[in-house]
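Lecture notes, unit on protein representations.

Consider one protein chain, 85 amino acids long.
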Amino acid sequence: MKKPNLNPSSNVVDDVARLAGGAIGMVSEIRQSVQSNFKERIEYTASNLDLVPRSDFERLEILVQNQHQEISALQKRLSELEKTK
C-alpha cells in the first residue's frame, strides 16, 4: 500500500515540474517541425526559380573577367594602330 503524502505542496511542485518538462519537449518538437517545414519550402521555391549553381556562376564570372581583359587589350592595340595611320 502506498503511503499518503502529507506534504501537498510537493505534489503541486512535482506536477508543475512534470508539466513544464512536457511543455519544453513539446515546444522543442514544434520548433524542429517548423524549421524542417521552412527548409523544405525554401528548397522547393529555389528549385522552381531555376537558379544557376554557384560553381557555374563562378566559372562564368572568370570567363567574363578574361574576356574583359582581352577586349581591353584589343581596344588598346586598335587605338595604337589607328594612331600610326
